[in-house]
Amino acid sequence: MFQNVSLNSSLLLQSGLLSWSPGADDADGVTFTVQFRRFGEKRWQDVPSCVHIAAPPCDVSALVQEAKHGCVRLQVKGHRQGEESEAVEACRRRNDTCTPQVTLSALPGSLTVHLTRSHALWDKHADHAKHRVCVGPPERPEQSCAESLSSLTLSALDEGQTYCTTVQYTLHGKREGLPRCPVCQEPPRAAAGHFWVIPAVVLPGLVLGSIMAYFIIFHRDKVKRWLRPPPRPHSLSLPLEDALVCTPTEEHCSVITGFTELHQD
Prior knowledge:
GO terms for molecular function: cytokine receptor activity. By secondary structure, the protein is α+β, with helices and mostly antiparallel strands.
């Protein structure tokens, strides 16, 4: 029925207008209904001034101002000839008090989603406030989703494939506020020379380790002798039975003619 439902962040901050782009198949007779769900609520309600309207925008400024923490979710449905389309949830292109701040960084085969705990929900609810992180191709950015308190890295990604992420706050496992509009990036391709870095570092280590293991196993005694500290110098002592001790009062002493060598291991 329609596509590209999005909340224009600059207008939201100034006048709270929700806008979207009708799909190519939307012909005359199609009308739209905007629904909202405030912080902590379980059911969607129609915005009274935006039921079966012919075209955007929809003024939701009062809803945002009244919502706790500014957390309000918005979605749009299309109607034509008694049929109703699936709801498409609005998103924001920039972070605010109830939309996460998201940045991406990529390495060959991996993508890191950088998040922060510095937001109003975490300040009040601590680790009960998390991020719902979804990733997928541009046409299906919510293909796979998981909850996380902080930044996370997605690995084993296909080369040449663009990946998009959407992030939304959760509280006790329930989504709150508007999600961040998809942020997309393609992980870079690994350079061919990079595959030689690991062997060039690991191979010398393996060779050195093999040499050390050989000496330890087959030349253990030699290794012990090499590692044994040098022996102490031989000490010389004089046997008391062969020596005459002179006292200060004596004027003549016998001459010592020899020493006995004692070995100390």
